[in-house]
């Protein structure tokens, strides 16, 4: 079974995000970029499925700018077999919207014919949490979102999902789309030998036009602003005073 894993290039999760002075977006100048953490979990899960014998080939795909080659090389160094880069923008500040990304991934899936697509549940830069579901809808495949455990048995996948108040286990027929949650696994580090090997692995480069997909934005970002700072706390001298303050704040 072939597994397709979409990955996205985002600001590294350890970097403090800075907003441009004019509020037009996030400042990406001299900022470290890396693979979206949830997508990294998806790549790891695909590798584990291959190690168990449930998968035979892992193909990673990224939609964005040419610099996403670095992100794909990271996935190849982790253990993916080959990569596809779909160049859909020239400016690193251009974020391709989920619907356009989903259409391209669906076209890639139609070409590659994978038995399973695993992607992160969301990207940490825009938190849309929509691409995986849209891909499943476009392909007409079953979907299992927010997976915290995945088990492949024959032509079906058993997926455990975290829901309010507990865990839900569902079974979907393959081919299917699974979106990875934080607790699905802990991604491995790419070793130096594997990083060197990744440079020789196949990385095909295409464009959005090759798939006939219009990536023109449908949304307009009106303003980007940093979160407001937290107000200073106060100390209370008794339980009665605490209750009074909570009442004043409308909490109780």
TrEMBL record:
Residue runs in coiled coils: none
Residues of the Electron transfer flavoprotein alpha/beta-subunit N-terminal domain: 23-215
One Pfam family matching this protein: ETF
SUPFAM superfamilies: Adenine nucleotide alpha hydrolases-like (SSF52402)
GO biological process, one term: carboxylic acid catabolic process
Keywords: Electron transport, Transport
Keyword Nucleotide-binding set for record: no
Any one GO molecular-function label of the UniProt entry: electron transfer activity
Highest taxon of source: Bacteria
Essential cofactor(s): AMP
Annotated family: Belongs to the ETF beta-subunit/FixA family.
UniProt function note: The electron transfer flavoprotein serves as a specific electron acceptor for other dehydrogenases. It transfers the electrons to the main respiratory chain via ETF-ubiquinone oxidoreductase (ETF dehydrogenase).
Binding partners and assembly: Heterodimer of an alpha and a beta subunit.
Protein name: Electron transfer flavoprotein subunit beta
Annotated organism of origin: Rhodobacter capsulatus (Rhodopseudomonas capsulata)
């Amino acid at each position: 079974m072939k597994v397709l894993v979409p990955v996205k290039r985002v600001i590294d999760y350890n970097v403090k995000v800075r907003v441009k002075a004019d509020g037009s977006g996030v400042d990406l100048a001299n900022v470290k970029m890396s693979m979206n953490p949830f997508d990294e979990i998806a790549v790891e899960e695909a590798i584990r499925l291959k190690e168990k014998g449930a998968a035979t080939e892992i193909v990673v795909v990224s939609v964005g700018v040419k610099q996403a080659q670095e992100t794909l090389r990271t996935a190849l160094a982790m253990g993916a077999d080959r990569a596809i880069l779909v160049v859909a923008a020239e400016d690193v500040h251009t974020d391709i919207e989920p619907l356009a990304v989903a259409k391209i991934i669906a076209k890639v899936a139609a070409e590659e014919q994978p038995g399973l697509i695993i992607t992160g549940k969301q990207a940490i830069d825009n938190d849309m949490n929509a691409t995986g579901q849209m891909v499943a809808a476009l392909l007409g495949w079953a979907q299992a979102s927010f997976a915290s455990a995945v088990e492949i048995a024959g032509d079906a996948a058993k997926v455990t999902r975290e829901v309010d108040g507990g865990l839900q286990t569902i079974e979907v027929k393959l081919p299917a789309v699974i979106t990875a949650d934080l607790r699905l696994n802990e991604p491995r580090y790419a070793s130096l030998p594997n990083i060197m090997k990744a440079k020789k692995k196949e990385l095909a480069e295409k464009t959005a036009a090759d798939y006939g997909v219009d990536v023109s934005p449908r949304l307009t970002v009106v303003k980007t602003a940093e979160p407001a700072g937290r107000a200073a706390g106060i100390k209370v001298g008794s339980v009665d005073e605490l209750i009074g303050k909570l009442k004043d704040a409308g909490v109780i």
